[in-house]
Design goal:
Blueprint lengths: L1 E10 L2 E10 L10 E7 L4 E4 L1 H9 L3 E2 L1 H9 L9
Parallel strand pairs: 1-5
Antiparallel strand pairs: 1-2, 2-3, 3-4
Length: 82
Amino acid sequence: MVKLRLKRYGRKQQPSYRIVAMDSRSKRDGKAIEELGFYNPITNETRIDIAKILKRLKQGAQTTRTVKNILNEAQIIAKENS
């Protein structure tokens, strides 16, 4: 199953994450199928390729809870309860 999740990179105590599509059985920092965006929790900076994310979601990719929250904040996907 393909999941949209975060892949950590950056220095110690200064994490940055790439939003990637990868197999759910892969390691957190393993090989990604496709890079879809960027998230920095320290500066709260987010860059997202909306077209690629929507394409992956239409193909049946699942999101992790954190990525879903990031996409909700960016108003890319609607909240389920709304």
